[in-house]
Amino acid sequence: MWAQPPLGDRLRAELGSPRRARRLGSSPRSRVWRAELSGTPVVVKQLIEGPEAAERYAREVAALRLAARVDPPVVPGLLGADPVERVLVLEYLDEQPPADDWVVGYAEALARLHAATSADDVGLLPAWSGPTRDDIGSFLALARTLGCTVPSAVWTELDDLVNRLTHASGHALLHGDPCPGNDMHTSSGTRFIDFEQAALGHGLVELAYLRIGFPTCWCVTAPAQPLLDAAEAAYRTAWRHATGADVRDDLTDACAGWLLRGDALVERAYRGTADHLSKVPDGDWRWGTATARQRLVHRLGIVGRMTAGGGELGNLGQLAMAMRGAVLSRWPALEPLPSRRP
After folding, report:
1. Residue 36 forms beta bridges with which residues?
2. pTM of the model
3. What is the 3-state secondary structure (H, E, C) of the chain?
């Protein structure tokens, strides 16, 4: 079943009939084939029926068209699209294994992707949405369950943080899920695929992935500090080259925002279904390359160290380190996040 890509008459007339079709692995939300159209290798992707299928299709098409402005390319070319069947025909990319320092090329390509859009594009994709006050409540409830004292100043800091993230100006083209596996390493550089969650917002919320531990990803890693520094510098240099402006602000708010989100401990199918932070004291679960507690310990440590000098999130930083200590005291066998992707 589904041996052949579902190309309708219009796409067949434009591109040719598929030959040598072969199913590829994909998420449960899509079907993907490699095929040939008029002798040219392509990838055909169909977003299948399910929650928000039409919206996911529209986001992906819009993002690919916006990203096509970038040269050298940072996405595969969109060769054809059928909104009725939710089918995309994409340029086939000859992928290579990622290099040991893949995060540097990844960050450089991410900056160029983010720089594809301007204020004139606002409204072409949904705005990025950050943590909420419900996330604050869940995070502070976890702190109390772990036996940590929560100063009243922390709530004020977190309320201000959520407000800053909600109203942060930015019109970068955000991938929405820039994970290992959604980056393809080719002879001409890194390109990104799977834009079903694309949005417009501030690019720092995705640059933060490298430091905070890929919060929406099954493949979470913690690059060695020299590689992390080189990658973040590469992003800032590429952004400056593409836009003529420096990246405003540091990563502290972005990383703290990801720390608050319990949904960043579970795969997409389970997001929005429960208070996942509240489950951490009673059980651990593995998602991809790490467990929920491993991810949480890493994020607590990152935010604690980033705020060690005080500032707008100084009290949060002290609480984060206290929570990290409490978690490691209860479960001392927890290992650090892997430094290399599988």
Report:
1. 19, 41
2. 0.95
3. CCCCCCCCHHHHHHHCCEEEEEEECCCCCEEEEEEEECCEEEEEEEECCCCCHHHHHHHHHHHHHHHCCCCCCCCCCEEEEECCCCEEEEECCCCCCCCCCHHHHHHHHHHHHHCCCCHHHCCCCCECCCCCHHHHHHHHHHHHHCCCCCCHHHHHHHHHHHHHHHCCCCCEEECCCCCCCCEEEECCEEEECCCCCCEEECCHHHHCHHHHCCCCCCCCCCCCHHHHHHHHHHHHHHHHHHHCCCCCCCCHHHHHHHHHCHHHHCCHHHCCCCCCHHHCCCCCCEECCEEHHHHHHHHHHHHHHHCCCCHHHHHHHHHHHHHHHHHHHHCCCCCCCCCCCC
pLDDT at 46: 95
Rounded to whole angstroms, the Cα distance separating 173 from 182 reads 15
pLDDT tens-digit readout, 100-117? 999 999 999 999 999 999
Burial of 228 (0-12, 13-18, 19+ CB in 10 A): middle
Token pair in block for residue 11: 């796409």
